[in-house]
């Protein structure tokens, strides 16, 4: 008779572990990001931030060591954002090549895949090789559902640690445009935070995320 309670406890623990493997809900990290311009913090309103056409900063105040930003001019991103769902993962080496104070903005939409599909294998299988595939399978087995994979370049090396423990990304260039920024609005952003991987040398990461639209008043 004692076997049934033990099995129930084991099932509860296993189910909890699966749930813990999920990335957080889309709005869970917005509180950890601030937009700063002319010394003032500008709070998002209904998923939108309105800025003037001058230099601004994105400050991350959360606990993760790896905040990042994906930015696009492409309106298709609005539809993709509606299709995004947890869990979302990515692989190491997906940073965009940008100068320290440059926000790289893509002209395409997200490079997005529903799991390690045939399409993903064709596009990225040879790049990730067996190590990436094995890590993906191990991570997927901890999740309740097949994850989305994002391979688009993100701006993350631009965040610099600050004395107060926050990280600051000062944007003084958007692609090749210098202030005053003109004709580059709206910007469709997704703010990301990498979850700490189970192994220090892991190349596969769960992502927490939240969308945001930036309008620059000209």
Bin the helical content: 10-25%
- Written as H for each helix and E for each strand, in order along the chain, the element string is HEEEEEHEEEHEEEEEE
Number of helical segments with 4 or more residues: 3
Report the biggest beta sheet as strand number plus sense, adding barrel if it closes.
7 strands, mixed
Point out poorly predicted stretches: 1-24
- The best one-word shape is globular
How would you sum up this structure, described in words?
There is one protein chain. With 218 residues, the protein is an alpha+beta fold. It contains three helices and 14 strands. The chain has helices spanning 3-20, 76-83, 118-140; strands at 33-37, 40-42, 48-51, 56-60, 67-72, 88-91, 102-103, 112-114, 148-150, 160-161, 167-171, 173-174, 187-194, 204-216. Strands 3, 5, 6, 8, 9, 13 and 14 form a seven-stranded mixed beta sheet that branches. It has a five-stranded antiparallel beta sheet with strand order 2-1-4-11-10, with no helix packed on it. A two-stranded parallel sheet has the order 7-12. Strand 10 (160-161) and strand 11 form a beta hairpin. The termini are far apart. Residues 1-24 have low confidence and may be disordered.
Provide keyphrases for this structure:
218 residues; alpha+beta; seven-stranded mixed beta sheet; five-stranded antiparallel beta sheet; 3 helices; 22% helix; disordered N terminus
SSE arrangement:
Blueprint: H1 3-20, E1 33-37, E2 40-42, E3 48-51, E4 56-60, E5 67-72, H2 76-83, E6 88-91, E7 102-103, E8 112-114, H3 118-140, E9 148-150, E10 160-161, E11 167-171, E12 173-174, E13 187-194, E14 204-216
Parallel strand pairs: 3-14, 6-9, 7-12
Antiparallel strand pairs: 1-2, 1-4, 4-11, 5-13, 6-14, 8-9, 10-11, 13-14
